[in-house]
Amino acid sequence: MVVAVTGTLLVLHEDASVHADILIDRPPANVWKVVSTSAAYPDWNPFITRVDGDFRTGETIRIVLGVGPDSMVFKPTVLVVHPDHDLCWRGSVWIRGIFDGTHCIHLTAVTGGTRLEQTESFSGLLVGRLTKDVVEETERNFEAMDTALKQRVEKNSP
After folding, report:
1. Predicted local distance difference test score (pLDDT) of residue 4
2. pLDDT in tens, 13-60
3. Number of independent structural domains in the chain
4. Which DSSP state fits 60?
5. Contact indicator for 102, 89 with CB cutoff of 8 Å
6. What is the rounded CA–CA span in Å between residue 48 and residue 131?
7. CDD domains from the entry (predicted)?
8. Whole-number Å distance between alpha carbons of 138 and 19
9. Which of 19, 84, 98, 117 is the most exposed place for a label (fewest CB within 10 A)?
């Protein structure tokens, strides 16, 4: 039985990724100020509704996605903090290697503002054709987060 389940997981396994981007009419430093202030996420973010801890390389933070009984809690490790440019963390569902996600926010200075690119790379035994709904929902949530971030930055900075 274990061999059959493992074989099925390996056959269905296929890493997945999500990508969303948006142009924000402010410089990267203004966008970074909002993105890197973990305590303020509940004030503006409809997707990542709470972050406990600071964005420091090597730190384990606590992230809450959503609200109410359907919310999910992750405890990822911060991988990259490059002010005004990059913020990345990696977390797992259950144990590492089963269902992992690496989330990155990348800021690029462009004429008239900042291009924000948000990505999530999923890997692990449970990632594959069975996770299509998760990928699609994550993409919708990224778009909502990007829009809310754009509104927050453009409203609160000159």
Report:
1. 46
2. 567 889 999 999 999 999 999 999 999 999 999 999 999 999 999 999
3. 1
4. B
5. yes
6. 20
7. SRPBCC_4
8. 9
9. 19
Lookup: tokens for 132: 């299509």
Q: What's the pTM?
A: 0.86
The residue type of 111 is T
Cα gap 117→125, rounded to integer Å? 27
**55 secondary structure, DSSP code:** -
Residue type at position 34: V
Number of residues that make up the chain: 158
- Residue 45's nearest CA partner among 157, 154, 143, 155 is 143
Amino acid at 101: G
- Residues 62 and 152: their CA atoms lie apart, in Å, by 23
Range of the domain at 103: 2-156
Look at residue 88 and give its three-state secondary structure: strand
Token output for 48: 């990542």
Q: List the CATH number of the domain containing 57.
A: 3.30.530.20
Angle between the N-to-C axes of helices 28-35 and 132-156, in degrees from 0 to 180, rounded to the nearest 10? 120
